[in-house]
Amino acid sequence: MRTLIPEPTTVREMGGEFALPSPLPIAGGGNAAAYLAERLGRAAGVRVSEGSGGIEFAHDPSLGEEAYRMRVSTEGIRIESADERGAGWAVQTLLQLLPPAIYSAGPMEPTSLVVPCVEIEDAPRYHWRGSHIDVARNFLPLEGLYRHLEMMAMHKLNVVHLHLTDDQGWRIPIEGFPKLIEKGSTRPGTLAGHQPPPDENDCDDVAEHDGIECGGYYTREEITALVERAGMLGIQVVPEIDMPGHMESVVAAYPELGCVPIEHPRTCWGISEHVLALTDEAVEFCRAVLTDVATLFPGSPIHVGGDECPGKEWVEHEASRATMERIGATTPAEAQAWFENEICTHVLDMDRRVIAWDEVLEGGVPQGTTVMVWRKSEAVEEALRAGHDAIAAPTEFTYFDYRQHAGEDHPLTIGGNLPLSKVAGLSDLLDAVGGEGEGALLGAQFQLWSEYVHDWAKAEYLLWPRGCSVAQQLWSGSAGNARELATMEEHLSRLTARGLNWCRTAE
């Protein structure tokens, strides 16, 4: 029996095998059947047809959300699910039952497409199984993002969280604000090497950069196509527009929205003290942006950031200070709480789930706001006690911009060590979360911040195989075979077949 990651809930081997015929009859299946046909055709030239004697998809409303049942006999394959996602995850399991070359561009011999006879019943442990990709600090081309979606689907991850805006670049066109792309998507250069240690305010900037123009954005048509492809694979695309901090790219494009003028998006990293002004104009800008984002990502939750927002400029900026007096805010923290309430309420009024980083717990946000916890794991329970749904994204287990091993050949990262063996402890943390409060723990996700990631080759090196372990834990509830390279050997051959630049050193 092949190694399956994530591991199904139950697997019963029955003896015998089923050889996929060509053409392969497929009955039903929708998107799941379409993706299966796509992969079989690409790798092995297998054609599909309608009919019986091959693969049959059936609807079973008694199964839970995203669950499936699959039976492979010598006569054919039957897949039952209550929804499209469940059928899609069944197809991903079926592909893993085939030789690893099924993930390649081919060619492979169609006669090698033989599936062992098994009965599998499977369902996910957590609803939110995510992958966060920062495409703002360094723009990552669409081609690699499409491949990342396929890797997510292989691992039954169902949410891709795109960090689309930051101090260093704005990556999404917004109706009525053309300068966000014209000026906000490109910076004149990038800091060479590692960011220097922070100054006393932890908001340091550096004037030196490499002088190489850096920019890029996704068109509205590209975003629409990406959302459609993700949906076919059972993945929801969640956009993040970070505010009111991490907004230098906005202030560079529209100086009137900031407290001080900025010539261009930030050329280095660290926390910037240049934030949006506390003015009606800035708040209305944010509302307009989020309204347009909602049209580009129909039905999706919307992440509004809320992290790392120094308020020094608000105290020194006359219009922002006037707003603080009007709303009764005596500190920047109170002023940000007011801002977050305005923005989160706007998203909720659009009948969308709104998500914010855990800093928002300090000042309070409207009920219905989902809190994404990154700084300290204890904040998960804090959010639940406050009545908020929570998503775990703890730095200590899920920040893949940290080093994957201690070898001298490891490429430059933000710092810190997060080997595969430590990532395997995420499920223990999730199991320890208590049941107090009205909020629910939706699940978790891993994050890739891109300060030191300029292309997909490096992104994949940092993402995998650590991403395999997180996916395994979120689906099955424990690290299982995905806690060390030795027990993942067969699965890693699938990544190789797909052409991924995964990291071959675990510690």
Description:
By secondary structure, the protein is α/β, with parallel strands linked by helices. The chain folds into 2 domains: 10-122, Chitobiase/beta-hexosaminidase domain 2-like (Chitobiase, domain 2), CATH 3.30.379; 128-498, Alpha-Beta Barrel (TIM Barrel). The chain contains 17 helices and 19 strands. An 8-stranded parallel β-barrel has the order 8-9-14-15-16-17-18-19, surrounded by 6 helices. Strands 1-7-5-6-4-2-3 form a 7-stranded mixed sheet, covered by helices on one side. Helix 3 (142-154) links the parallel strand 8 and strand 9. Helix 1 (30-44) runs parallel beside helix 2 (84-96) and helix 7 (280-296) runs parallel beside helix 10 (332-349). The longest helix has 18 residues, at 332-349. The radius of gyration is 24 Å and the shape is globular. The two termini are 28 Å apart. One of its GO terms (molecular function) is beta-N-acetylhexosaminidase activity. InterPro entries: Beta_hexosaminidase_sua/sub, GH, Glyco_hydro_20_cat, Hex-like_dom2, HEX_bac_N. Keywords: Glycosidase, Hydrolase. Belongs to the glycosyl hydrolase 20 family. Its EC number is 3.2.1.52.
Key terms:
507 residues, alpha/beta, Chitobiase, domain 2, TIM Barrel, 8-stranded parallel barrel, 17 helices, globular, hydrolase, HEX_bac_N, beta-N-acetylhexosaminidase, beta-N-acetylhexosaminidase activity
Report the C-alpha radius of gyration, rounded: 24 Å
Beta-strand content estimate: 15-25%
Number of strands: 19
Mean pLDDT comes to 95
CATH class of the largest domain: Alpha Beta
Terminal residue distance = 28 Å
Tally of domains: 2
- Rough shape? globular
Strand order of the largest sheet: 8-9-14-15-16-17-18-19
In which range does the helix fraction lie? 25-40%
Q: Number of DSSP helices?
A: 17
Low-confidence stretches: none
Write the CATH homologous superfamily of the largest domain.
Glycosidases
GO molecular function, one term: beta-N-acetylhexosaminidase activity
Domain Beta-hexosaminidase bacterial type N-terminal: 3-123
Family: Belongs to the glycosyl hydrolase 20 family.
Catalytic activity: Hydrolysis of terminal non-reducing N-acetyl-D-hexosamine residues in N-acetyl-beta-D-hexosaminides
